[in-house]
Amino acid sequence: MQIQGFHDLQFEAVREAFAELFNDPQERGAALCVQIAGETVLDVWAGTADKDGQQPWHTDTIANLFSCTKPFTAVTALQLVEEGKLELDVPVARYWPEFAAAGKQAITLRQLLSHRAGLPAIRQMMPREALYDWQTMVDALAAEEPWWTPGDGHGYAAITYGWLLGELIRRADGRTAGQSIVARTANPLGLDFHVGLADEEFYRVAHVARSKGNEGDEVAKRLLMTMMREPNSMSTRAFTNPPSIMTSTNTPEWRRMEQPAANGHGNARSLAGFYSGLLEGRLLEAEMLEQLTREHSIGEDKTLLAQTRFGLGCMLDQPNVPNATFGLGPKAFGHPGAGGSIGFADPDREVAFGFVTNTLGPYVLMDPRAQKLVKVLAACL
Q: Where does the Beta-lactamase-related domain start and stop, copy by copy (predicted)?
């Protein structure tokens, strides 16, 4: 497998570990970027980007980053808090009056950001096309009753996060959620990152497909069994309502929509650049970065049925939980995306890391491919 890009010789072992991923015949395309103290020390890519394995992965190939998008959304909301346009601890209903329905009058932005609001899913099944209708989805969430007492524990809002935070951002900022997020996070840092992709960019998007024959870890198996056996459970609804959530990734409608929980498009460079920007204080003041990365939720996740730990919109490291550690320092923060892409920062080592793949693995939290690369990176530092 020919590896494109460049690397500092100190990180030759990381490049070799990246090349080894392609020993698996199912591995199609991927990119990896590592920045240290704002300097790029490794930026490599390889494999194929299209469905038929004919189109090489290029320097400007981008992919659906799934939940790697969430921290961009959270940072945008926190910028609006810094500007006094939102507040962390006042009721969301102050900005969005309809949201007060069904016992949600006291839910705060802080609870939304830390997955404590009790709104990871919608009970009533929505039609497939509702996924692409912003107003339909935010109206449904405004009417939804919390699945548990808000603030009492946490449950990952896999996709509802995008509408809940996005609607607040839209109301506070006056632009659509995708426009606001890109203008506030990607543009100042020169990142190739999009929430709501223009049609003329479609040619460079990697086609995403699942790998076969791998059942994943215990957490993945448990969640899959729940979704098969309990179609009306909160966990199942979180990933399958509207039913188009799981099947739309490669469609034009998915790429065009602005769903800031799950359909950001970018590359490894844009993930590493985002976390470098955070570490350098270019996106948030120190006080707000501390809020972002401070533990707000830990323990059994009511949606994922696994132990998770969150700040305000980012996942925090759990060094002693094998499937929930980024693999560097204990203060690491970031977010994995479904199927294996990941972006994170380790403030102790000033490392910003981005890994993007179009070969989806069946893991719920951290993908072993990325963890393996980080392990080799740690040995090089």
A: 17-371
